[in-house]
Every structure is written in structure tokens, then in C-alpha cells.
Specification:
Layout: H1 18-22, H2 28-44, H3 50-72, H4 79-91, E1 92-93, H5 98-113, E2 115-116, E3 119-120, H6 124-135, E4 141-142, H7 152-167, H8 171-192, H9 196-200, H10 206-215, H11 226-245, H12 251-281
Antiparallel strand pairs: 1-4, 2-3
């Protein structure tokens, strides 16, 4: 008697709706950053020109494609490069075109050159803009325009940005930084005698929208654990607090430049010690 043949049943995989595919983590951030650009420029003219921003975007994507092909032997997804390019276009101010192309190229190049143990340690746009502010200070400046008293655009961006970060499980980073910024802003106002409104008003500017939603939450340049991410977010706010006491105009950018990589180095050092300790406690048996 021939035994019955078992029929393997496979669970039917439900199709993912198109609108959910468009909300993929790779597509949502570019949509949000484009909204920040359009809202800021249509309301307050935050861009030097659309042409300069387009130059930064094209340079960023082209540099990413070339270096990705050379170093990784594949064509990278352009979303990250698009975010870097548009960030450069928004945050950099210069009457010339070349700083936008150079800053975008520096930002992307840092991902492939400034690496430690297989990962880049600086947020690309943060590195590129800080580098330009230091080495080309006579030709460039950073964005300093606020949203004014019109909070409609701010509310829309905050809601969408918060939803995206919540979906990506990174909202806690932004929340810790924002709360720390406000508390330290009130303290700073008491110390220097300025109205507290002037100390917390930068949070309403386009620069801070990019900073809290893209730079400090960058998955590639943040520490691994949730607790560590919260500690680093507070550390960035605290270093910024100290720099603002010294009247540093670009305090948040410089604070992230120093704190972010330092936190990654510390995490890697701790991981290496744990690995060595684990190897010492569990030595490999000697081969005969």
C-alpha cells in the first residue's frame, strides 16, 4: 500500500498595499525633508536659490553612486544621498555655487573615508557643513532664519517627523534632546539674563527641524542601545548649552560633531573589552 503523500501547505503572504510601501523608511525621510524645504522657502525664502540646492543634491547623489560602486561594488540607494544634498542646500549660505558642490562631495566622501571598524562615524551633512564653516568661513555661513510667528508649517513638520521617527523607533532620541534643550534653555536664560523666549526660539527654525529629525537620529551614526541613545542626546544638548554660553552661533552642529563620534568610539571600545573578556572566560580548547 502506497503511503499518502503529504501535501505541504504554505501560508499565503498577504500583499503589502502600495501606500504602505511608499511609507517605507527609505522614502518617508526624503518626503519630510522636501516638505521642510518647500515650507521654509515658500514662507521665508530660506534658500539662496533652487539651482544651488539642486547642485548640492546632484553632487551628493553622483558622489554616492561613484564611491558606492568603488568601495562597496554596488549601486547604493539614493535616499541617503538625497537627504544629505538637500540638507546642504538648506543649511549652507553662500553667494557662490562651488561651496554647495564641495560641501556635498565632502559630506558623502566622509562616509567612505572616515571609517572605523567598518562604519562611518560622522553624520555626513553635519561633517560637511562643519568642515566648510571652519575651512571656508570667508565664503560660507550657516542658516539662521527662523519660522517667525507662523507655526502652521512647524506643527505639520513636527507631526509628520514624529510619526516617521515613531515608526522607525527613534522618537525617543528627538524627545530627549528637545526636552533637554528647553530645560537648559531656561537655565541659560537665568545665567546670562536674557528672556527665556530668545533662548528657546531657535527650536522653531528650519535648521533645528533638520537637526532633530535627521542628524541626531541617523541610524548609521548613533550608538546601538536605547539607553545609550538617550544619554548621547542629552550630552549633545548639554555641550550645545555650554557652547551657547560662549556665544557660539553654530553650537548644535558643533556639539553633534564632537559628541556623536566620541560616543561611537566609546561604544566600540566597550564592545571590544567585552569581546576580549568573553574570550578569556571561554578559551578555545587546544587542538591535538
Amino acid at each position: 500500500m502506497t503511503p499518502p503523500v503529504a501535501v505541504k501547505q504554505t501560508a499565503e503572504v498577504p500583499s503589502v498595499p502600495r501606500w504602505k510601501q511608499m511609507l517605507d523608511s527609505r522614502f518617508a525621510p526624503p518626503v519630510l525633508i522636501t516638505l521642510i524645504l518647500l515650507a521654509g522657502n515658500l514662507s521665508f525664502g530660506i534658500l539662496e536659490s533652487y539651482q544651488k540646492t539642486l547642485l548640492a543634491i546632484v553632487t551628493s547623489i553622483a558622489t554616492e553612486m561613484v564611491l558606492g560602486r568603488i568601495f562597496l561594488h554596488k549601486w547604493p540607494h539614493p535616499a541617503s544621498a538625497y537627504i544629505t544634498g538637500i540638507s546642504v542646500g538648506i543649511l549652507l549660505r553662500s553667494p557662490a555655487f562651488w561651496p554647495y558642490a564641495l560641501c556635498a562631495a565632502l559630506s558623502i566622501t566622509s562616509k567612505y573615508v572616515l571609517r572605523y571598524r567598518g562604519r562611518h562615524i560622522w553624520n555626513p551633512s553635519n561633517f560637511g557643513i562643519c568642515a566648510m564653516l571652519v575651512v571656508a568661513s570667508a565664503s560660507v555661513a550657516g542658516l539662521s532664519i527662523q519660522w517667525g510667528n507662523n507655526f502652521a508649517a512647524v506643527i505639520v513638520i513636527w507631526v509628520l517627523g514624529s510619526l516617521i521617527l515613531w515608526r522607525a523607533k527613534r522618537f525617543h532620541i528627538t524627545a530627549v534632546y528637545v526636552v533637554s534643550f528647553f530645560l537648559l534653555g531656561f537655565l541659560r536664560a537665568r545665567i546670562i539674563g536674557d528672556p527665556w523666549q530668545s533662548e528657546i526660539s531657535p527650536m522653531t527654525g528650519p535648521m533645528y527641524q533638520l537637526f532633530i529629525f535627521f542628524m541626531i537620529t541617523d541610524p548609521k551614526t548613533t550608538v546601538r542601545t536605547r539607553t545609550g541613545q538617550c544619554v548621547v542626546a542629552f550630552a549633545i544638548a548639554f555641550v550645545e548649552f555650554l557652547m551657547r554660553l560662549d556665544q557660539s552661533v553654530y553650537a548644535p552642529l558643533y556639539a553633534l560633531f564632537w559628541v556623536g563620534p566620541t560616543a561611537l568610539f566609546v561604544e566600540m571600545w566597550i564592545d571590544s573589552r567585552r569581546t576580549r573578556a568573553g574570550g578569556a572566560l571561554n578559551p578555545q580548547p587546544a587542538r591535538p
